[in-house]
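Much of the work behind modern protein science is quiet bookkeeping, done one molecule at a time. The protein below has been through that process, and both of its lines are reproduced in full.


***
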Amino acid sequence: MLDFDQPLYRPPSEGNNLILQATLGCSFNRCSFCSMYRSKSYQARPLEDVFEDVDRAATAWPDARRIFLADGDALTLPTGHLMKLLEKLDQSFPMLSRVSSYATPANLRRKSIAELTELRENRLNLVYLGIESGSDLILKKITKGANRRSLREAMVSARTAGIKVSGTVILGLGGAEYWEEHIDGTLALLSEAPLTYLSTLQLFLEDTVRQEFVEKFGESFQRQNDRGILLEQARLVGGMDPPEPVIFRSNHASNALALAGNLPRDRDALLRQIDAILKGAPGIRPAYLRGL
């Protein structure tokens, strides 16, 4: 139906939805763990090109209800640009109920609450935010370009405007030495900032970024084994005290253990699942089946 500029990525929950490339690449593209858009230079696609894709998609799938705007952070586009695109989507898809995109802390914070509210009123009502960690130490080591304060401000701004936030945390990001610092900092952030969904990924370094990650980490990095990852998962789930209930998932293909529940309601049940695996019960995803 559409000719995508590869590679193309989208969140697991967008797998059955229409994807449109509003931008190519990532405007930041310096996180040391991430190889997703290293082969691309960031650019905003001209609206006329995106509109052509919209017309083709509307012909093939006129009843599409949900649309994901790729690539890495379409929200970096000027608000006026995004509004024209959202208006085109509204005109082209009469059953449209949700538009979503990736977002970085920086491009959420650059937009005013009024701008974010206007976008939400035009159906851009969900953003996927790579939190990665709430620890300032770990965020610096992975060259995230954000700290706990800026992450908190970004999450609060989105939620104030009525935009749902789906945040991701990367298990194993602090290695065997800093795993407690990583999880405890993340818990501190999540206790302060509202989000609707929380997902975990597991650190997966592709060959193209492995050396860069180790060098930027700044010292010897010892990767967590599966037991270490499970301990991180248990500490995260057990310590969650969110300001509002959170839908929790660890079903991304990178995870050793898939979990699903609502926090804090299902905390005890999730902890029992993790404890059973730690004691030898089956359920770990084989390493050869994990990946991005």
